[in-house]
Amino acid sequence: MKVLASHSVDLLCTFADDFLESSEKRAHLKDALRSLAQISGSANICNLFLSLLKKCGLEDIPSTPENLECEANEVDGKGEENTDSTAEINNKRSLLMELISTLAEAADEDVLDLFFGFIKSSLLDSSKSCESKALFALSTILKEHHEYSLAQLDEIMMLLHGIKPDSNNAVLEGQLVCYKYLLVHMIKVNEESTSKKAFLILNELILALKSKKESRRLAYDVLLAISTSLRSSELNNGDSDLQRLFTMVMGYLSSPSPHIVSGAIAALSLLIYTDADFCVEVPNLIPSVLVLLQNKAIEVIKVGSVSSVFPVGCFQFSCHLRV
Hints:
323 residues; 20 helices; ARM-like; Ribosomal RNA-processing protein 12-like conserved domain-containing protein
């Protein structure tokens, strides 16, 4: 290990160059780069990334919306002659995003600032060419560095809220995964300053549950992953963390919108399906959902039957309603 550590910087640079140039070996190189980053130190990771930005001609990427708009106007004015150049730049950006995902675990705050700035510039880019890769890189940072994530919470939320996936499932998945890590962090810290943003995220998930089939499936997967993460908390308070999630979802049952209420029922059906004991452990759960039997909105009444992703969970939930 001492010999490897003494040559880790050279190896890191060599493997990074190979990563950019060879598509066939990238999957294997990622594992090597991730391991080398752990023993190379953040300063060397920072120097490596800066050198790669310069090598790829991306060291002067604008990071503000105003500059990005000016850059877009300049490109539009030059016509098709920049098409190949733009495609090459976007390809380099995508590769660097993959490197960020690989190196993020070993990064300190200064390197994370560098990575986050590069990710932000891509998410603000009007071309949206690397949006899914940028979201995946961001999700890696959110997963591995919860303190940094909460420190940058306002800016991260602004970026995520500005993304419109439309029909791009890869972008939607990346957005929802980022929301997943943020929501888990916020529920675990349980601070009043983050509670409003936690509800904003949960609202996005509930709306996705009422969207088209593929979006609904992604939202179910993310909600299930959130539940699993809270249940397996290392702080020995996983039950209370999960109960907070239930309580937050239950809050939407009083919404005046049948669309939101049916989305909340769909979320509860999944959570109860994965752990039916919460029917009796979560305070006021049964009384809250029994009130729904008096609801006249067709969308609320039929929510169990229209769920095509977890029909068993919805059936089990409907059984609990009749206890």
